[in-house]
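Re: beginner question about structure tokens

> Can someone show what the tokenized structure looks like for a real chain? I only ever see the sequence side.

Sure, here's an example I had lying around. Input first:
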Amino acid sequence: MALVFNITAADKFFLGEDKVIDAIIYGPDNVTPLDVSGMVLEWNMRQTDKAPDPAIITKGLSSGLSVIGIYDVVPGVNTQRVRTTFASADTDPLVTVNYTLRAGFAYRHSLKRMDPGNEGILYYGSLTFLQATER
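And the corresponding structure tokens:
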């Protein structure tokens, strides 16, 4: 059921900026949208898939993760998205306490359903930041 969702240089995610990333979550057929309303969700980013805890950045439904839009089983009608919101301090290499983020490095990220008995990865992939001259 997990989909690959890479955030690349083409997405223009700069270190130290406010950013919103929206994703549609699909069911096992990778075509039909999955209704995620009511699910407990957690997003995290690590240096590698095998990196030990804690994650570099973690987002939950009370801390930067939200479900927006209206669910519909028809892909063209469905407007439901999982929104991940980043404040500039989340990715500012001069502010981040536990880890210094680097531009051009492919970090690993994933969104997981955390409901007991129904845990599962909904999407995963790489995340590459850009660096501008202005910070």
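Each token stands for a local structural state, so reading them left to right follows the chain. Residues 88-91 form the longest helix (4 residues).
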